Amino acid sequence: MFENIFLALQGIFSHKLRSLLTMLGIIIGIAAIITIVSTIKGTNEQIKQNLIGSGTDAVNIELYQGEGKMNFLWNPVPDGVPIIKKQDLEEIEKIDGVSKACTYMRREYSENVFYKNKSFSGSLYGIDENYFEVNNFYVEMGRTFQEEDFTQFRKVAIIDKETAETLFQGVNPVGKVVEIFGEPFTVIGVSEKKIKFKPVINSFQDYMTYAGQSMGQIFVPDKCWSIICRFDEPQNIVVECNSTDDMTKAGKKTADYLNSRITTNGEEEIAYKNDDLLKQAKQIQDLSSSTNNQLLLIASISLIVGGIGVMNIMLVSVTERTKEIGLKKALGARRKRILLQFLTEASVLTSIGGIVGVIVGIVMANVISKIAMTPVAISPVATIIAVVFSTVIGIIFGIIPAMKASKLNPIDALRSE
To answer: With contact defined as beta carbons under 8 Å apart, do 191 and 132 qualify?
Structure first.
């Protein structure tokens, strides 16, 4: 085998230009496939991060009525949906894939928050002690909530940077009093995400999919929620997962646990549902899958063309080396050895083309990424498969020339001019 590889390399390098032109189809095909696969993989990862966010594996489980989220500004609190207690959180944290859980209440686009003559139209949250930890928040200015804020029903609030800019416009907000649903709340801190992440917006479709998620936020202790809203209400929940891959399963199991406690008999189903962000990401990725498959098919055609080129040059090589083949046979070389020699030469030729194609493909993928501002992710598995596939192409298209060489009559071969 090693002798055949050495002879194959010797033959390739003795006809450098011819070998390069022969490999060109393989190089172009493999380079195109690597470029397309790398771009697709990078785009899919970007979609996944746009929806999930970098560095967070938290899943929201919210209360729904029918197909819409429960909004207690317009809907009465349903009977039969119990408040989530500490014991429930402990049970949820025993679910496979869940590392920590917290509860919260929310008013989206709340317009009942004021500071002097300025109003706020973001989201208002009533959170428990673990909410900031589970959702990767920290307090950049001021202080976070303390146990006494919950046990003593202190009317204090933490705001994010967007809210601070909207209501206070550069003035230090700590110590200032905002009015929330007619109740005075003292701002004790400004929160920020531990890992900042913004969706990559490359088109209007991306804007419609991801934008609108950076509205301001105000957080108050959940014990004070009834002061604001005048009644208790069922909470939503966030579970922090051990990994991104655990999100779907852990979210579903948490929702199932919460739903097992609901005893409502309303006309519309009231149930907890988890945000399956991985499913959403896959749905968006699948929208472009048909186009991607077509591109890969077109790129694969050049591999067939390259294989035909290899077969053609190997037939020429057999003709050129007829006397050599005849001499080997006259000295006792069997058909199998001649067959293996030419198959090895064809596969080595395409393997070199595959390796060069992978290198060119990686370079092209990175160049396109820089020019078009699109993400790219090189797949080690795809590169290995590409090289193996190029070798297989050499074997397949090298069979006919190799068989022709192995079937030559040694006497006729030695007579040839």
So the answer is: yes
Return the closest-CA partner of residue 213 out of 201, 228, 203: 201
Residues in the chain: 417
Query: With a cut of 50, which residues of the chain have pLDDT below it?
Result: 54, 199-201, 204-213
Please give the model's pTM, rounded to 2 decimal places.
Answer: 0.58
Q: What is the pLDDT of residues 229-248, one digit of tens each?
A: 877 788 899 998 887 778 88
Residue written as tokens 């959702």? 135
Look at residue 53 in the predicted model and tell me its pLDDT: 52
Place of tokens 């007619």: 182
Identify the pLDDT of residue 281: 53
Burial of 378 (0-12, 13-18, 19+ CB in 10 A): middle
CA distance 16 to 396: 23
Distance CA 408, CA 399 (A): 14
**Amino acid letter, residue 308:** I
Strand partners, 114: 119, 179
Measured in Å, how far apart are the chain's first and last C-alpha atoms?
30
